[in-house]
Design a protein that fits this description.
The complex is a heterodimer of chains A (108) and B (122). Chain A has 108 residues and is mainly beta. Chain A is built from no helices and eleven strands. The chains are: A mainly beta (108), B mainly beta (122).
Chain lengths: 108, 122
Amino acid sequence: DIQMTQSPSSLSASVGDSVTITCRASQSISTYLHWYQQKPGKAPKLLIYGASSLQSGVPSRFSGSGSGTDFTLTITSLQPEDFATYYCQQSFNTLLLTFGGGTKVEIK
Amino acid sequence: QVQLQESGPGLVKPSQTLSLTCTVSGGSISSGAEYWSWIRQLPGKGLEWIGFIYRSGSPYYNPSLGSRLFISIDTSKNQLSLRLSSVTAADTAVYYCARVKRGGGNYYFDYWGQGTLVTVSS
């Protein structure tokens, strides 16, 4: 199995801040890495696919980067609606898709 | 706009079989290159991929669940189904169906159902 480790597990930030979430794979996954946002009681929402491609309709303050084993999701100018939990997911091993443990972004 | 809606019992007894259906609207489950998937989220925990299926192909299962799992697709009803046998309390979770968008080695979930909570309890 490819293990996906996110850090931090939670963070506190203020509206207008820039935040960066890290996702590390247990082996190289090229750029087969995707990011989701989940709000309480809701289904996850796709933000970024292929490590850096912005899903249609997602604000440009979200960006992704990385390749190999280390990836980041950056949110610039955090907005009130961005407080949520974020997950990464790998698809290098298409027979066992795995998610990171999540990063909760809370209001400071 | 593709929409997915899960349905099924919210309560299942231990050792019985959990059965869920996902109805797809706004698009045909039998066209395109997408796969169709089930994902679950244990209470207060992260996400676990259960398996996926292509419109006319064999399903692929998470090995940790494989022997208890059956995923099927009914193109005439535009529905995806999940059966998980011999359930225990550890299978209590919110179950989501989702569309899998594929491109090269990118397999990602671009449309999700709202999720349905299934509790395993006697």
